[in-house]
Amino acid sequence: MQINKGKVFLEAMAIVLVLGLLAGAIGISAANIMKSLRLGVVWDWQEIAREARSLLPGGDRPQPQTPASAPSVASGSAMPATGGEIKLDVTRVRFFAAGKDVPPLGERKYAAKFKGSAIRYMWVEVAYRNPFYRQHDAEIPLVIQYWGPDGNLAGEVKTMARPRKEWENALTTHSWRPASWQKGVYTVRLLVNGTAVGQGTFEVE
Predict the structure, then answer these.
(1) What is the reported pTM?
(2) How many C-beta atoms lie closer than 10 Å to residue 195's C-beta?
(3) Quick check: helix, strand or coil at residue 8?
(4) Chain centroid to CA 22: how far?
(5) What is the pLDDT of residue 61?
(6) H or E stretch including 53?
(7) By the 8 A CB rule, do 156 and 143 touch?
(8) Is 50 exceeded by the pLDDT of residue 198?
(9) N or C: which terminus of the chain carries fewer CB neighbours within 10 A?
(10) Domains and CATH numbers, the chain
(11) Which residue has the higher pLDDT, 120 or 59?
């Protein structure tokens, strides 16, 4: 069978030219292709084709992976304070009787003695220095224990103190009401992560 060498040569050159254009886009020169063909190097054309497709619009080049980063706290949100890292400096504990809703600061009538028949809810107001001042908003787990005149634990409340980072000093309040009031002195103890940080007393007549 007669072979048109000129036609074969032109077709081979056309193929090399096309491959050279594609290969040039992925870092392989036409000269290197010709050299490799002469030396008998076997190219992985499927891999080259995949790489070439990835360079086209809509190609299937894998997206670079974003390194995992540590969890961050969104601006304005509070960070929970846990473990033994908190040293809460309680500066004052005061008491006032009121209804179910806490009254504004200017309407609170603080006292150390109360008539049992007039108490609906006993409120405790805790003043403290913010241990996270100028750092971040925080949530501080606070346990309030009410010890009755008989020396027994009459009630316990678990709550959160939530100081803002711009507050050098802060207040937190919480209410409590037993089934009935015993006459005598009640002791209120404050704990953070199991450590006593302050206490106060009030008397029921």
Answers:
(1) 0.59
(2) 12
(3) helix
(4) 48
(5) 43
(6) helix 45-55
(7) yes
(8) yes
(9) N
(10) 5-55 (no CATH), 84-204 (2.60.40.10)
(11) 120
